[in-house]
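Researcher: Please translate sequence to structure tokens.
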Amino acid sequence: MGPRPVPPEQRALPILSTVSPRLREPTPTGSVGMARPAEQPVYVPPPLESRPHADEIAHWLEELRRTPFLELAARADAVRREKHPDGVVSYIVDRNINYTNTCITDCKFCAFYRRPKDGEGYVLSYEEIGAKIDEAKALGAVQILMQGGHNPYLPFDWYLGLLRYIKERHPIHVHGFSASEIELMTRITKLPLDEVIRQLHQAGLDSIPGAGAEILVDAVRDVIAPKKLDASRWLEIHEAAHEVGLHTTATMMYGVGETWEDRLEHLLKLRASQARSLKRGRGRYTAFIAWSFQPLHTEMRNWDIPLGTGMDYLRITALSRLVLDNFDNLQVSYVTQGPKMAQLALRMGANDFGSLMIEENVVSAAGIDYIMPEAEIRRIITEAGLQPQRRYQDYTEWHEGDAGCPCCAWRGTAEAA
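Model: Translation complete:
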């Protein structure tokens, strides 16, 4: 089955008038997964006793085993209400800008990337990115989410120049460059990690997305993305960003053949990482987002693995809210789960609806194309008995007439000084 088309009347809504799911439709030979499906390796999960946080994993496995689903959901909802007693569900208006799809990491779960010299590979110019930002700002966007493939042909100065260009000509909050992209920059420059992050921050990077986490268990990563940075390096990069004062987010992509032990190890590693960053008192993880693997057009499309179900998603949402007690915000993934599942998740621990997503390229390349106008997002939140509220990246509330993103205010002060 191909991608589910977005109804023309929905595409015509003002907030979606500039949506472009991909640079162009993938061809059978252009989509890497269609051209070369990967053989499925045998995954052997690490024994429980060998894992970090083994005792806590065992505890939460027992909780999952003996706690009825609705009781688990109610406990998670109680935590949400404790953390957010005003009943607000926040969301942000932004645009995903994928500056390049050229990538050398060959993740088996990705339908978006193209190998170097592929005819469908691209790199957006600064001017094209600037035009996308202006379109997004005209529609009310307060940030851009900027991510791309691991393109070995882009020098570090290209990224720094892009950030300066954005801040000078199209100022907006830049939530950009996943840990794996930053890892590529350290290899290109041979600079220490903290220096790479410092230079990015000074040039205009305001926060870092949590992409590339997948499952933070190396045995899983070795199966689905053997060329990608390992779990400890992903955590190290985020904690280094927190040291500089940057906020980041954290994610989980499940349904790639992992076990519940793997999922719990992932969550517990994130909780420990957040504890370390909060102790240092600077940046932190602002939110956690889970979503399910989408196999269409990927190299894993014919693998015999149990894909994540709707019940898995709701259990993971509730469990995440209980385990991640030092995370303030839990975000739904309506892009992969659809609006109804996202609405249910709002009563199972989640308190944030994510992004309006004026543009989205990566998930849609795998055949999933849930896009909603702002009015629909607000309706879904309201019908769940909660109060919708626009926000900025740092979860400060957005209000009409604001001077701008409060977490970026230091830049103007520093430049004036």
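Researcher: Any highlights?
Model: The radius of gyration is 20 Å.
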